[in-house]
Fold this protein.
Amino acid sequence: MRRLASLRPSLAGSGPSAPVAAVLLAVVLFLLSGFLPNGFGSDASIAFAQATNILRLSVFLGVIAAGQTLVITSGGEGIDLSQGAVVTLTAIITYTIANGQNGNVPLALLAALVAGAIVGFVNGLGIIFLRISPLVMTLGMAGVVTGTILIFTKGATTGAVAPIMTQLIARPVFLGIPGAIIIWVIFGVLMWLLMERTTFGKNLFAIGTNRVTAKLSGVNVTGMVLGTYALAGLLAGLGGFLVVGNTGVVHIRIGDPFLFPSIAAVAVGGTLLTGGKGSYLGTMAGALVLTLITSLLTTMQMPESVREMVLGGTLLAMVSIYGRQRGFRQ
Amino acid sequence: MRTLRLQDIVRRSFFFALVLLVLSIAVNLILQPNLLQSDTLNSNMRVFLPLILVAVGQAVVILAGGIDISVGSILSIVNALLATQIGPKGDTGAAWVMLLVALLVGMAAGAVNGFFVSILRLQPIITTYATGFLFGGLALFILPNPGGGIPASFTSFYRETTPLGLPLAFYLIGLIMLAWYTIRQTRYGRYLFAVGGKADAAYETGVPVNRVQFSTYVISGLMAAAGGIAITLLTGSGNATIGASITLTSITAVVIGGTALRGGIGGIGGAIMGAIILGLVTNIISFANIDTWWQTFVNASIIVLALAAPGFINLVRRQRI
């Protein structure tokens, strides 16, 4: 299997690979931001604090984009537009079940994961059995999930996050490093193992490259697609749990701002949107770059119009560098 | 001339949309018996028209194997442009010029998309998502806060013009269908389907794939601008985020209309039906006295069922064999 992984065409072409390019961009941007009027200047401890904070903010987008990485890699026009709604749903579930009690946290986490997985599994059912395009199936499910939230909450939520969640996610736990970052590092290693060192990962790249050949080589395509979407839902559920743990409050649109950035993070990280090629490391870098740019623009107090244009321009530039598809003449 | 048999219609890509359309008209008619009266018909169609126009452009892009996530932002730019440049007390002559400018702006925005997708060969979904941000930012730059407007004579023209008692939208749809029918007979029309079906094979048989792809984004930009004009005429005011929700709805309308998202199969007739169906479903929900908190759920469930039904029929059919 080790050999198989190395045989897979690497993302590195002539230039630097996507994750490296994204991280380099993030570092350069961050260092430049020190020169801003309200930047960190020459104070290393403030710089460290700012860097830690941006890294901490990237965790939530990073975890949510993990599921997106999996479904996009699985090919077949794979995409999950229900993630924003699932994050909202699971954040509300966590908030309601935890209800301020540390003892309720395991149950809240379990419920969030299961709810996310169920939505993802239904997505998978529609996509593989009813042959609905992933884009519209997950878009439709986003509406169903949002509708379900409205029915049960009637616009108002009651509950509270447990103290242990705030402690572990939002506060520093080790050498001044917030728990969220440590969780993300462990999570990243697990995602890497899943994609690069397991049969699931091998089959994921196989169905992403060509479903017919994958099927002929004995891959259970139906099971893989169902599993991938269910897992993506589960990871969005984890995202919802972490998001609410960080903010401490929940509202009915809390997950929406994560939906499209999760796709952008995957694309900036060099994962092919057509499937079959990608890495979670790239997505992590993508989430970092996007979060950094967004928070820099906010720090610089740019109007929303400029923020949107800069974000769009950066995305376009990043994708132009290494997101190009093969031309017909080649 | 071949006689049109029922079987031929059943096999067309828009057949299921046609069934849904008839069904939703019937249900709507039960809940709202005056649906087909001139006034009601007109007040419905003028609300549906912006989505219909955007969906037509989206269908052309999707047919040729692409997708356009920036249509909502293009619509917003046009709305912001018209509301700020014409103004509620604007001169009518200058206003007509601005409408023309708006269409050109839409085509220019489409050309930007076309450049990145067909010349630089970037992936359509992420490209148009990024340009959507660019265009959306531009719209907010033109009109940071909702405001501005167009002369009342324009809104009343849009709202009240019903030649022969039929809504203005019907004539526009007729024109679009006529144009589409003509295009389909041309070489370009065949190229569209060829590029969407299998771009590599089309390239090898001498189809100018890049130019065809480029043109679809320009068409989509133009139609989004037309949608922007329609929505501005409908509301009479400016709001730079007015297009945000129409992008994904237009894709849903295209898919319900029987056009495959992978390209090569479908047409704009289906997309028009899809857009009308989505509008009618919203109508039905508001007339069926459904509890406010349930409306989103019911609406989304109907859409998912509509998307699922063709697949479900196929599933049953496959298992019977």
Q: What stands out?
A: The two ends of chain A are 31 Å apart (CA to CA). Chain A touches chain B through 53 residues (CB under 8 Å). Chain A has 14 helices and two strands.
